[in-house]
Amino acid sequence: MHPCFETATGLGRAIRNGRLSSVEATEAHLQRIARLNGPINALVVVDRDGALKAARAADRVRSKKNAGLGPLHGVPITIKEAFDVAGLNTTSSHPPLKDNIAKSDASLVARLRAAGAVILGKTNVPELCADFQTDSPLFGTTKNPGDTRRTAGGSTGGGGVAVAARLSPLEIGSDIGGSVRNPAHYNGIFSLKPTEWRVPGRGHVPDIPGRTRTTRYMGVFGPLARSVGDLETALRVIAGPDGHEAEAPPVPLGPAPRLEARGLRIAVLESNPLVRVSADTTAVVEATAKLLAKAGAKVKRAEPAGIDWWQAFDDWIDLFQYQNRALQPLGERQPFFDRDGGSDPSARSMVRTARLDLAEFFAVLDRRDQVLRQCEQFLDGYDAWLMPVMPDAAFIRQKQSEPLRIDGVDHPYFFAGCSYNFLANLTGQPSIVLPCGFSQEGLPIGLQLTGKRWDDAKLLGVARVLEKLLPPCPVPPNYKD
């Protein structure tokens, strides 16, 4: 077995069974990183000495006992640079934090270590995780391994590329508007955005260290991997309240059911009214729906009754902006008070939220509750909701100021890039991305399955059904050896 082409779960099993040592697995990944990382810039911090020290320790423990080992014992993984890893830089690509060294591990990093994981290093992000491309003012640009002219996605772009290029079997990222989902889509891998508050966020930037915590809604933390099994393994390690966040309830994850396609009820959304997806994306949605139907699932094109997509998008971006601007000085907000936001929904939100009007903030939360009820009631009738992740396959890298073009139609950049991912953040529902097909140019296209809040385990069961119907996770052409 070549360690770099195994899943995290498979590596863990081999290490626990003594068929492979942690040092062998770790050295293989470090060698591959040294050989292949340069042109794609996925990892921006490589902790070679720390990783090998942890791997040797894992092997010593394994030699003394083979029972009671954690599910990731000795498995090398990567962490998004925005999470604290003790002794390593945590900057979130924000220049004022360029010299910041984490004094302790983020809660989920500590849990991964306790489960036996070996941390290879940290992966690239855009500044403060605020883009769906990964162009860092501190670390440079991460490039798509399938075509280096194109976006790697973001903000967990470095992690998505690391997993796709077989530099790491497992990455942990964050998502407030698609940041674990669009990199999975663009790079042909799997990812999971869990239910809101399922996984603790202590030790993630933003928020800025030492400042008041303002990111209290919609931000979620989850894995990117090359199988649904790895998503489940990682979630079981990192889930559960850590005693630092008042919002996080102790809801058990429960077992993932073993399901069959026959009898599953799947709702399908080919395109929403905000941004029409590309013809390539439509073809993948239709082909995947047919695949499920042929296997015996009950597939129906449907969406929640009465949902106002435009208002829901406005509420998502306003809630994001209220949190993002809560500590912004009046002098920086005041120029927006009487500005016309124009036709760009993101720009209009900057105007609406500039005054930090508390009554409007609570009105947004009220409307959020309404959309949540609509989507939860809708999913009473379905096991999952299948829809696009992004409007198209990976685009050639561009500036944020330029419109995003989908099949010849220009759309405002951030509006288009968040037009499908925003809803599961607004509702807090879990969502899993699977690599479902390719564009005519051979670029990966993923689709997402969304489930009910706190029903992450059932959603994993549904995703396993679809995974069995799909080809194996693709390897980028230049990374097959």
Mean pLDDT: 97
Shape: globular
Strand content of the residues, in percent? 5-15%
Q: Would you list the SSEs in sequence order as H and E?
A: HHEHEHEEEHEHEEHEHEHHHHEEEHHEEH
Uncertain runs are none
Biggest beta-sheet profile: 11 strands, mixed
Radius of gyration: 21 Å
Our count of domains comes out at 2
Strand order of the largest sheet: 1-3-2-6-8-7-14-15-11-9-10
How many separate helices?
15
In CATH terms, what is the fold-level topology of the largest domain?
A: Amidase signature (AS) enzymes
> How many beta-strand elements?
15
Structural class given helices, strands, pairing? alpha/beta
Distance between the termini: 12 Å
Q: According to CATH, what is the class of the largest domain?
A: Alpha Beta
Please give the share of residues in helix. Answer: 25-40%
CATH H-tier superfamily of the largest domain = Amidase signature (AS) domain
CATH architecture of the largest domain: Alpha-Beta Complex
Question: What is the topological layout?
Answer:
Layout: H1 8-16, H2 22-40, E1 43-46, H3 48-64, E2 76-80, H4 107-114, E3 118-123, E4 135-136, E5 140-141, H5 157-164, E6 170-175, H6 181-187, E7 190-193, E8 220-225, H7 228-238, E9 265-268, H8 279-294, E10 298-301, H9 309-324, H10 330-333, H11 345-352, H12 358-379, E11 384-388, E12 404-406, E13 409-411, H13 413-418, H14 422-427, E14 431-438, E15 444-450, H15 456-469
Helix pairs in contact: 2-3, 5-6, 7-15, 9-11, 9-12
